[in-house]
Amino acid sequence: MPVQLLKIVKGKFETPIPSHLQNEDLKHLQEGFDHTNKYFQGMVILSYPLTKLEDGTDFLKVVLQDLNDLCSRINSINILIYGKMAEDCAKVIRHGDTCIVAGFKLAKSPTAREDGRHDCHLEMSEEAGSAIYCVAPKYVYTSLNNLKDGTIVNLYGVVKFFKPPYVSKGTDYCSVVTLVDPSNVKLTCTLFNGNLDALPKIYKVGDIVRFHRIKIREYNGQMQGVTSGGFASLTFDGTVGAPIVPRTSSKMYSFMNDEQKMIEELRIWAASHLSVSEPVAKLSGVQPMLFFDLTCQLVGKAKVDGSSFLLKVWDGTKCPYPTWKVPVEERDLEGEKLLLHQLRHLTVDILVYDNHVQLAKSLKLGSFLRIYSIHTKQASGDGEDVSRLEFHLHGGTCYGRGIGVLPESNPDVKELKTFLESVDLAGSQNMESMSSVEFDGTFSNVTDLELHLQRIQQLPVTVLTDHQDLNNTELKTILNSPAPQQYRLRAKLRTYKPQKLYQSVKLHCSKCNSLQEVPDGEDFDFILQGSAVTAPNTELHSTSWYDSVMWTTQDQKQRKIAIHFVKHDEMLQQPEDTLLMVEGGTLKEIWKLTKRFKCVIPVRSTEDDLELLDLSAPFLLQGNIKYYGCKQCSTPKPIKNLSSIAAEQQPSWEPTEIAQVLGIEPLQYVFIMKFTLVDGTGALNAYLFDYEKFFQIPASEILTNNFLQQKMEMTMNALCPPGRKLDDLPWLECFIKSYNVRDATKHQVYYQIFDTTVAEDVV
DNA sequence: GATTAGGCTTCG
After folding, report:
1. A397-419 pLDDT, tens per residue?
2. Between the CA of residue A312 and those of A281, A291, A341, A365, A474, what are the distances in Å?
3. Taking 90 as the threshold, does the pLDDT of residue A274 lie above it?
4. CB < 7 Å to strand B — which of 147-166 in chain A?
């Protein structure tokens, strides 16, 4: 059969190529050579529509590329097919197919000069005894729930998370991409390539990717994708109805109808199963203390110091807050001076740090960027009375922090360009007039910020939760009175400590009244590592009140991990209701378990029982919160006591109850701050000791909850706006008590705030 | 030819 469609089965042709035929390279296809028993193999990179010659003969032209010689300047050749063979071929041949052609006639190509292909073309027809074997690359795609360790697969996925390519500490760029598919399984892929272009061009969550030849490995008990030698990717916009245009650096890729259908299906699935990312922020919509992604154009850049670099960008909208300008040497600033001047009220300075510096330096002026996870921060410079909004791209790549360059073809860029052009047309005149009113302080367009500031200057930013009938006492009077007493007062918060709010969270033991720092993750990790040295004692596994499972890690350490699932009524409960005890786990594994299970108690085994770890480690993890016990006041009791809670009708696994049965005196998270209050008659330092009531933020949650951290920072900015003159500070209504502290040599009066809370509408 | 990183915000 002159035209034959071959299948590849297990890496070989299903029907073998006739054995007398031998492969010939493109460069050996020359006039004067004998090609009788030779074949040429290439991939279809172009296939023209079937036409008829003047004499009525069918004619088909296809272009084959030599896959073995992609580096040569000339690596493709025209194939001209005549008669019935042309007709047959047109039916089966597709872009991306591999074709084997034999029995051809070689002739000078009249178009070589224009099309830059081989000087000769190949003429083929049935009459001449030609043969074409066509191999459609049949890619098999594995769904994410069917991945096996050690395999190389092709797959599709919807991007659930990604880090735009960044410079790794090794030799390559790195991009981390987490995919999901309709099997609802996630796969995090770590992709490396020395060439930035070879990594997938993902611009937003929801984009769809097709990966070819990705290697699957097991890492930390989960499947992981990593780049293999032949890795290739296509990326598509994930929006339902958007044009299906693959983004790829590869000049050659197969893409056919099946693939189109796959993209459409995934788009529809994603639309109903993937949480939609938040609306894209514009500079006009930014708030202090936010992390956001910005699509913008680069108009200036400058080196600042070794670890930071400045990008001046704009998106055509005006930030409602006064913005921070990073001081740089005039000669260090790259960019068109006139443009920078014209846009000076619309550009913002973004300071990028550490690992982002190298990429930032390489950015081209005028290019369109998406900067991921910019942090806004309100701060005031030295001697300034207004606070300014700072934009930081901190070091590291957490949460996908990074910089991506968007091509001009990107729909968001097209929209932005149109918008920027319209801003430009409105004229710099507008900008000029705007800046002049800004300068003489008659800016009539009162922003939300200013309204907000006006409001907080009139009403107190804190209110009393009790004692409203009492009259205010001046600070001078309080300072001159003996302790202990209680007062209502009205004052301004001149300053507070610690300024770094994460330093204000401590652990408090209500029994011995001691305070201690919250241990950090490293301390915990260290204790876990120490306890993992001893293998779980299997004699303690699966008792009347818990079921145990154990496995050994695949890595070199061969670590043993045991999980003991506490039963209720002799049955296992739903994961979200389950308390489990874990032995030998790492910080990360334990953290993962807390995501799925209600409570996690890290334990180790002794000869005859399970026991809690050192009390420097949390005795319990629930959700995001680590619960610690007081070392002085706790007398740990047998783990078996937990079975009494498990036997309750509906075990609630309350941390206090767990602590009690385990003999643990729980430490409570508390905010400790020192407020310097002033009222014109005097100044006093009052301590704030607050579990939750004052800020209406649980101290236990703030260290792991970014939203709450932002809320806290905004609250403090409202109570004590940075850079403001004393007159412009808001009033606080507080209730304080004075108390005596005496030791052998000294007597002092201290003050503590209580029964006071931040006003509801402050944040 | 291995390495890079292996998601879960900095602390400037």
Report:
1. 999 999 999 999 999 999 999 99
2. 17, 18, 12, 10, 49
3. no
4. 160-161, 163
- DSSP string of A3-63, one letter each residue: EEEE-EETTEESSPPPTT-EE--GGG--TTS--TTEEEEEEEEEEPPPEE-TTS-EEEEEE
What sign does the CA torsion over A51, A57, A63, A64 have?
Answer: positive
Q: What tokens were used for A402?
A: 């990074």
SS3 A360: helix
Is the minimum distance from the CB of A326 to strand B below 7 Å?
Answer: no
DSSP 8-state class, residue A746: -
Beta-strand ranges (E) seen in A589-645 are 599-605, 610-612, 620-622, 625-627
Of A186-195, A345-354, A560-569, minimum mean pLDDT range: A560-569
Distance A350 CA to B6 C1' (A): 29
Distance A161 CA to B5 C1' (A): 15
Dist. CA A653–CA A632, nearest whole Å: 24
Q: Using alpha carbons only, how large is chain A's radius of gyration in Å?
A: 35
Q: Is the CB of A731 under 7 A from strand B?
A: no
Question: pTM surpassing 0.70?
Answer: no
Q: Are residues A406 and A304 in the same domain?
A: yes
The closest of A728, A732, A714, A674 to A384, measured between CA atoms, is: A728
Q: Does the bond joining A618 to the residue before it have cis omega, within 30 degrees of 0?
A: no
Last residue of a domain, one of A421, A454, A482: A421
Residues A268 and A238: their CA atoms lie apart, in Å, by 9
Nucleotide minimizing C1' to CA distance for residue A401? B9
| Number of domains comprising chain A | 5
Spatial distance between the Cα atoms of A422 and A419, rounded to a whole number of angstroms: 5
Is A426 inside a domain boundary?
no
Q: Indicate which CATH number applies to the domain containing A210.
A: 2.40.50.140
Same domain, A174 and A48: no
C1'-nearest nucleotide to the CA of A189: B6
Higher-confidence position of A526 and A667: A667
Dihedral class, residue A399 (left if φ above 0, else alpha if ψ from -120 to 50, else beta): left
DSSP assignment of A39-56: EEEEEEEEEPPPEE-TTS
Residue-level length of chain A: 763
Strands A222-236 and A186-193, sheet pairing: parallel
Q: What is the pLDDT of residue A710?
A: 77
Single out the residue in A72, A107, A135 at which a domain terminates.
Answer: A135
DSSP A469-513: TSPB--HHHHHTSPSSEEEEEEEEEEEEE-SSGGGGEEEE-TTT-
CA distance A398 to A355: 12
Strand B contact residues in chain A (173-212), C-beta within 7 Å: 174, 176, 178, 186, 188, 190, 192
* C1’ B7 / CA A416, Å: 29
On whether both A722 and A740 belong to a single domain, the answer is yes
Burial of A137: CB neighbours in 10 Å, binned 0-12, 13-18, 19+: middle
* Chain B positions with a protein C-beta closer than 7 Å: 2-12
Q: Check whether residue A164 and residue A203 sit in a common domain.
A: yes
For residue A269 the two structure tokens come to 């699935």
Contact status, residue A155 vs residue A146, Cβ threshold 8 Å: no
Is residue A549 situated within a structural domain?
yes
Spell out the residues 6+ positions from residue A364 whose beta carbon is closer than 8 angstroms to its own: A298
If asked whether residues A166 and A266 sit together in one domain, one would say yes
Whether A163 shows a pLDDT value over 90: the answer reads yes
Asked if strand B contacts A224 at the CB level, meaning under 7 A, the answer is: yes
Query: Does nucleic acid strand B have an atom less than 7 angstroms from the CB of A679?
Result: no
Q: Is the sign of the CA dihedral A629, A634, A636, A639 positive or negative? A: negative
Residues 6+ apart with CB under 8 A from A595: none
Residue numbers of the domain that contains A488: 462-503+669-758
- What's the whole-number mean pLDDT along residues A368-381? 89
